[in-house]
What does this fold into?
Amino acid sequence: INADVVTTDAANGTLKVRWIAPPETDSVAFPSPYYCNLYRFVGQDSLLLNASPILATPDTMEYLDHDLSTEYQAYTYRVQFFNNDTLIETSDPATSIFLRAAPADKRIMLSWSVRQPWNNVEYVVYRLDEHGLVWDSIGATSNTSFTDVGLENGEEYCYYVRARGYYWLPDTIGPLYNRSQRVCATPID
It folds into this structure.
């Protein structure tokens, strides 16, 4: 239910990954104990094969994944739910949102990519204020692109995007919020 960039950094970035157990596990066919494996893959187009788990604890439903290059690449996650040695359920893969900035004359064109099993209905774009203290919302869109206009050439602007999504199924958590990494760019003539 989350692949959320918490910290943007070239080598020490952090992603928060959250999930829920399958809602209707047949406890007769699949008696406890239960456990989960969380798999991480570099990028958004990675094949989800032959990976080893980075987590295998029974009750954990959240994991902070540290020491990642969140500044330069996206990550894909998948969860598998087991009892004993029997696989009960495998989640669809979910990626972190990866934001790109393309500067132009008095504008910065933002675009992002994401692959998540839920439906993102809105992306809110945030820009760091001129004092470098507050992230202000500057617009929202249902598309995966946004252009910030009326900017000063030669000035640096920093951004991130926050998605709001839903599974549209009964008994699921929602809305789901996930953030991209932070990027900076400078408009040029």
Summary: The radius of gyration is 19 Å. The longest strand covers residues 119-128. The mean pLDDT is 88. DSSP finds no helices and 15 strands in the chain.
